[in-house]
Amino acid sequence: MASSSSYNSPCAACKFLRRKCMPGCIFAPYFPPEEPQKFANVHKIFGASNVTKLLNELLPHQREDAVNSLAYEAEARVRDPVYGCVGAISFLQRQVERLQKELDAANADLIRYACNEMTSQLPSPSLVRSTSRRIGNEAGGSYFQNPAYSHPYSFPWDDNSSGHLNEGGGGEGEGGGGSM
Questions:
Q1: What separation in angstroms does the CA of 29 have from each of 13, 22, 44, 100?
Q2: CA pair distance 179, 93, nearest whole angstrom
């Protein structure tokens, strides 16, 4: 926000309108003399009197945002008289949708690749069945243990067909009577 009245140089708005820039000029803080095209675009699209009315109706802390919005819309209207900034927004929305589809496709490829890697590293089901041994008891509670994925400890019922705990080859130690 540069005030041009302190430099005795008229603001871009007063210069464009060919009038004297007064110390209380409402345009001076928002249209510095270094940016004449900014006001020219705003004036061409909205008109100086409409911008003056708009700025007078706003609170001082809201004016800068309003001028920036007007300048953006005016520049977009100069570039694209039919759609203005809506054309730019539509273009960006289509680009976001296209990029989202590309991202979804890349994620699907990544998942497919990861699943293929996992299945290629797992042993085949027939190999697991042929090398597994049945562990369990007479009550029907059993599971299959793959020697390649054995537990670092033994269960009390391992290699014990009677189903009684700590008899024979179960438990800790070779004596079969290990404490827990």
A1: 10, 12, 20, 42
A2: 70
d(CA 84, CA 74): 8
- Long-range pairs for 49-52 at CB < 8 Å and ≥24 separation? 51/27, 52/26, 52/27
In this structure, what are the phi and psi dihedrals at residue 2, rounded to the nearest 5 degrees? -110, 130
pLDDT tens-digit series, residues 40-65: 999 999 999 999 999 999 999 999 99
Q: Mind listing the pLDDT tens digit for each residue in 66-83?
A: 999 999 999 999 999 999
Q: List, as one string, the DSSP characters of 20-82.
A: ---TT-SSTTTS-TT-HHHHHHHHHHH-HHHHHHHHHHS-HHHHHHHHHHHHHHHHHHHH-TT
- Helix-, strand-, coil-residue percentages of the chain, each rounded to 5: 55, 5, 40
Q: Tell me the whole-structure pTM to 2 decimals.
A: 0.52
